[in-house]
Design brief:
Distance between the termini: 33 Å
Radius of gyration: 21 Å
Helix content: 25-40%
Bound molecules: adenosine-5'-triphosphate, magnesium ion
Strand order of the largest sheet: 1-2-5-7-6
Number of strands: 12
Number of helices: 8
Largest sheet: 5 strands, antiparallel
Number of domains: 2
Order of helices and strands: HEEHEEEHEEEHHEEEEHHH
Length: about 290
């Protein structure tokens, strides 16, 4: 073991440091590399085959030309920064992931093998929640940049490797998947009172094949139907904002008419006065980051 590190406090944890974690078996065949996209709640690493990384850096000759193909992760490895009080709190978190899986199914979320790790790097035992997650390739479906019917077309056009001949089919498939996703979330809300975080940029990804995947699967919050606006563990009003995102998906992607009067969920959460309060909390949250 090299220098111990407290991974929960590190804002950045480099790929080589991850190998120093006592619960990861050193392997010559695998490389853990800090993922270029990141969030607030987790350390995210791509798990790559060492031979793919070698090809990426040294190149390989193909048809007489040296190419440098990007190493594609075989898995994503996530370590939650959250300090859990005890094992029960972690089990509760895993239970929420299973609820999500039940309502959205394996097609709509990035499947994850969630596990606890006993981290001993700082001289005492700490329990961490980790996940080995399926890697999802594609473009971020950013709910804050969805403006009408053309939004999906624009996303398709921005895909690096696309065949324009497939455009119409792709848009139809992606739209259908958004519809199934919205229905699943609504069912989850009604039957369990939980909603996953849909608000974070990068939480939803559309793949080159037109599949929709929720990759951020660890911030699932309880709906609060009281006048108070509940905040998640980072102080973000993720319940209210996620419901707003749901409405954006329905309005902008599915082109549905949304009337507050007819929908009890939106009538309550999207009421103008409440939204003003949520926006204020959001502004304060970003100002304090
Ligand atoms: N399995 C995955 N496949 C591809 N990209 C992923 C995967 N998991 C996460 N990402 C990307 O990594 C970035 C951070 O992920 P995520 O939102 O899950 O982070 P977080 O720190 O847990 O959450 P938060 O958004 O709450 O801060 C996002 O841009 C997301 O698209
Ligand atoms: Mg996120």
């Amino acid at each position: 073991m090299n220098q111990p590190i407290d991974i929960r406090d590190q804002a950045h944890l480099s790929g080589s440091e991850v190998k120093n974690l006592n619960f990861i078996k050193a392997s010559k065949a695998l490389v853990f590399r800090k993922y270029y996209r990141s969030g607030l709640r987790s350390h995210i690493f791509e798990v790559l085959l060492a031979r793919d990384v070698l090809k990426e850096t040294q190149g390989e000759i193909s048809d007489g030309i040296r190419m440098f193909p990007r190493a594609r992760p075989i898995k994503m490895f996530r370590i939650l920064r959250n300090r859990f009080k005890n094992k029960e709190a972690i089990f509760q978190e895993i239970k929420k992931y299973n609820i999500l899986l039940k309502f959205l199914g394996p097609d709509l979320i990035a499947l994850s093998e969630e596990f606890l790790a006993d981290y001993t790097g700082m001289g005492k035992n700490q329990i961490l929640l980790c996940g080995l997650q399926e890697y999802v390739e594609g473009q971020i479906l950013d709910p804050w940049r969805l403006f009408g019917d053309h939004s999906l077309t624009e996303l398709f056009v921005s895909m690096p490797q696309k065949n324009m001949a497939n455009h119409q089919r792709w848009v139809e498939k992606a739209k259908k998947n958004v519809e199934i996703f919205v229905q699943g979330i609504r069912r989850m809300i009604t039957l369990t009172g939980y909603i996953p975080d849909l608000a974070g940029i990068g939480n939803l990804i559309l793949t080159p094949g037109g599949d929709l995947k929720l990759v951020d699967i660890n911030n699932i919050v309880e709906l609060n139907t009281k006048d108070t606006i509940s905040l998640d563990d980072k102080g973000y009003p993720s319940c209210d904002v996620s419901i707003e995102v749901l409405s954006i998906l329905e309005r902008e992607v599915l082109q549905q008419d949304i009337t507050l009067e007819e929908d009890p969920l939106y009538r309550f959460f999207l009421a103008p006065k409440r939204r003003e309060r949520v926006k204020k909390i959001e502004r304060e949250f970003y100002a304090n980051l």
